[in-house]
């Protein structure tokens, strides 16, 4: 039986005292791939932020990768985020550092100390996303798709239990979006749980999977053909 990676029960998500999503009930098992869709402002990003501790959970109950979101303390958040790989729309790479240095920055910040082990891990994750041999390039020397694949590789560094991808194709053209999704699906096929917020319906049609929709302060599962 698969382990539960995420469980939310009767959760209401607030942003600045305003209800964003209410009565959220969700269970995600290890190895699932889940889309979160909806128009801008319907709660996709707030949902994601709740999962990685950026928004506190104050109503309902929830656990993610073994952490209780209600009882989550400030000093727990770095440890929670080591078990979650986060991919953002705008890549968030350090512009003045090479790909390799971007990766080293994350590893050192999360407690790695052995140089050989760090380099082996960097080489491993870059190979997983099909970017072997670009480690000395600066972000501006890469295409948008390559930068996003670097961001995915970075999210894999600490072997997370869960990948959260918040609009990872939002700044990319359709062909590049499909390439990035192909990488995420391959990572999922290798056993990683992936939750992806998106408004890119073309990608969903190309790579169908379980889909939840944010609308009217609620979140509910939709059948693929009605997306």
TrEMBL record:
Keywords: ATP-binding, Nucleotide-binding, Transport. GO terms for molecular function: ATP binding. The lineage of its organism: Bacteria, Pseudomonadati, Bacteroidota, Flavobacteriia, Flavobacteriales. Residues 6-227 form the ABC transporter domain. InterPro entries: AAA+_ATPase (IPR003593), ABC_transporter-like_ATP-bd (IPR003439), ABC_transporter-like_CS (IPR017871), ABC_transpr_LolD-like (IPR015854), MacB-like_ATP-bd (IPR017911), P-loop_NTPase (IPR027417). It holds the Pfam family ABC_tran. It comes from the Bacteria. This is ATP-binding cassette domain-containing protein. PANTHER family: CELL DIVISION ATP-BINDING PROTEIN FTSE, IMPORT ATP-BINDING PROTEIN.
